[in-house]
Design goal:
With about 375 residues, the chain is α/β, with parallel strands linked by helices. It folds into two domains: about 100 residues, 2-Layer Sandwich (Transcription Regulator spoIIAA), CATH 3.30.750.24; about 250 residues, no CATH class. The protein has twelve helices and five strands. Strands 1-2-3-4-5 form a five-stranded mixed β-sheet, covered by helices on one side. The chain is elongated, with a radius of gyration of 40 Å. The N terminus is likely disordered.
Length: about 375
């Protein structure tokens, strides 16, 4: 009895023997059809399978592999498999495929852990250097634009400037005042606890005055502004870049640095010193209140001691830092906004990065100021 399984295979059963006649062209162009036909080949209860190659018109490596794979499967299932009419030109490919059947377990290459650590550190270092170079380039561009705007004040967008001053300064006053007051009170309380052991409670005024005026007020205010206004700058400019509004500005011949960066930069440089002055007053007020409660030092005594013990330069040290920190925060916030690539995910990622970079730069520059003022004897 003969059964036609496909246009490439003819099966003849004879008792326990099955003859599988391969017909036609066994080449790569027909590999899908040939594969399906061979997968469907099931000798059933037969014990031996004979593969007849007499009607094979042409055979390439792909066809030979399909035949060899089927022979291997049948032998694995317990059948005895043999070839008939195995012409020399066919035998060459079949023997070649069989000779190169060397299964190898594929394992992903594993490199030493220290290699991965060194590579990660190296990539991070190179990325940091590249980021620093881009930031320095943006610093130069910002400085040049700021100088041009100051020389030609008519180029400054006054409406945008006032709006950003309200957002970065007036709206930030409550949170700056509250945090500065609480930090001043905590500093006074902790200082009083330590100084009481030596009977030097009165020097808590010196501690509060110097630490608040020189460092605490300016650092707290700069960190709050970096997290509040710096991130807002990145999010706003980044969203405009996602919506291709910045490209539209350039198409119209407008300079995004003058339209977007300068109002924010100048607004922050004007309002941050005001916020620092507010933080100074609230920090001293919090310390004065806690000194009154914990040490029974009256506000009059506190102010009298403060005026005599704290030099005026302690106040100006913090105020001198304010415009520099404002410049850094605004520059970093605007720079990261321009780095947005075109997705909401990028906006969020770079907004976070802007806050981290701004706070890092503020602390580094504050350390430089401290060394500089110490060298100057201030």
């Amino acid at each position: 009895m003969a059964a036609m399984n496909s246009d490439s295979i003819i099966i003849e059963r004879n008792g326990d023997d099955v003859v599988v006649a391969l017909t036609g062209r066994w080449i790569i162009e027909r590999a899908n059809d040939l594969d399906r036909a061979l997968e469907a080949l099931a000798p059933g209860s037969a014990k031996a399978v004979t593969i007849d190659l007499a009607q094979v018109e042409s055979l390439d490596t792909a066809g030979a592999w399909l035949v060899y794979r089927t022979v291997k499967r049948l032998r694995g299932e317990g059948y005895t498999v043999a070839f008939i009419n195995r012409r020399p030109e066919l035998a060459v490919l079949l023997d070649l495929v069989e000779a190169n059947d060397h299964p190898v377990e594929c394992r992903p290459p594993r490199e030493a852990e220290w290699h991965a650590v060194v590579a990660h550190v190296g990539r991070g270092t190179l990325e940091s250097i590249a980021e620093a170079r881009r930031l320095v380039a943006f610093l130069g561009l910002t400085t040049a634009t700021l100088g041009r705007s100051l020389v030609q004040p008519r180029r400054i967008r006054k409406t945008a400037l006032i709006s950003h001053m309200e957002q970065t300064g007036l709206d930030a006053m409550p949170i700056v005042a509250l945090i500065s007051f609480l930090v001043g009170a905590v500093l006074a309380y902790q200082g009083a606890e330590q100084l009481r052991r030596f009977g030097a409670e009165i020097f808590v005024i010196n501690l509060i005055g110097i630490s608040v005026l020189r460092e605490i007020a300016i650092l707290l205010t700069a960190i709050i502004v970096a997290g509040r206004s710096g991130s807002a700058f990145t999010a706003a400019i980044g969203s405009m870049k996602v919506r291709e509004e910045i490209d539209a500005m350039r198409t119209l011949g407008l300079d995004p640095m003058e339209l977007l960066v300068m109002p924010r930069l100048l607004a922050l440089m004007i309002t941050l010193p005001i916020l620092v002055f507010l933080a100074d007053m609230m920090g001293l007020a919090g310390g004065m209140m806690m000194a009154w409660v914990a040490l029974d030092i009256s506000p009059g005594q506190f102010l009298e001691r403060l005026g005599g013990a704290i030099p005026l330069w302690s106040f100006w040290v913090g105020m001198i830092k304010a415009p520099v920190f404002a410049f850094l925060i605004a520059m970093v916030g605007c720079y990261e906004g321009f780095q947005v690539e075109g997705s909401a995910e990028s906006v969020g990622k770079l907004t976070t990065l802007a806050v981290v970079e701004a706070i890092f730069l503020v602390i580094v520059v504050d350390a430089i100021f401290s060394i500089l003022f110490a060298y100057m004897g201030v």
